[in-house]
């Protein structure tokens, strides 16, 4: 007995394979648009939190905005480029103070980033070896990074006190390295104190990033190098550092931006008026804006700082990309 299948009622055979194309095209559009739709809330918040205040700050930099126009800053008269001219006039007191703060910030950033990277890389390399207590040491190393900034810096401020501080107690009373207790939060020593706190607070981040990067280096490379007679220093130069180059490029850039813009550390350590030796540009702009009540000049300084960081970041990215292409070639 032969059974013949009858065609479905109301349905016709498709003339070709092109019939489902609109449906496939619609699905493809949805797949492409989905990531952008998911990123849209974050993009809107980013514009609201960062871009809008940035635009307002740029507008304020072209106004003679002082304490007399705080209630209605839009009514402040236009100053054109007077605030910028005043900021970059290095023969005048305001420009000279800004230039001094810029040089102090550059020196502080170079030393802090270099020491953070050196300590973090050294600790991460040694933490790759298996030994008892390695997990505990890793957790202890990350404590400075996990602590709230205010709690950590205010503790250091107490430790740097001249009479009852722990630093002078160890250096002067116990070790006898100084003739008398030192002032750490005023004078030239304030730069050293600020650098110590910044490195103590920042090197665990470098340690964490470098330690994660070391996990991607195959152990076979070290084993082969050991068989060929390469020592620890040669392995570090020939294997570890070249393999960590992409990680270090991002790490150094992030540390540079964080350190150059650091406001919390000097503000908590010294208060509103930082010593001249530790007058970072972030605290200097704050004083120009909220202490002298000259928000127009402070905004102009902030815009100049933004332009400087953009230029440095762009040059750094171009140079590192060229170096990466040269290394790959």
The strand count comes to: 0
Q: Helix count, per DSSP?
A: 14
Category by helix and strand content:
mainly alpha
Identify the CATH architecture: Orthogonal Bundle
Low-confidence runs (pLDDT<50, min 5 residues)?
Answer: 5-11
CATH topology: MetI-like fold
Write down the overall mean pLDDT: 86
Describe the structure.
The protein is mostly helical. It has a single domain (74-324), classed as MetI-like (MetI-like fold), CATH 1.10.3720. It is built from 14 helices and no strands. It has helices at 21-60, 82-87, 93-126, 134-141, 143-146, 149-159, 166-174, 189-214, 219-227, 232-243, 245-260, 264-270, 281-291, 295-328. Helix 3 packs antiparallel against helix 11 (245-260). The termini are far apart. The model is unreliable at 5-11 (pLDDT under 50).
Task: Present the secondary structure layout.
Elements: H1 21-60, H2 82-87, H3 93-126, H4 134-141, H5 143-146, H6 149-159, H7 166-174, H8 189-214, H9 219-227, H10 232-243, H11 245-260, H12 264-270, H13 281-291, H14 295-328
Which short descriptors sum up this protein?
MetI-like fold; mainly alpha; 329 residues
Summarize the structure.
The protein has helices spanning 21-60, 82-87, 93-126, 134-141, 143-146, 149-159, 166-174, 189-214, 219-227, 232-243, 245-260, 264-270, 281-291, 295-328. It has 329 residues and is mainly α.
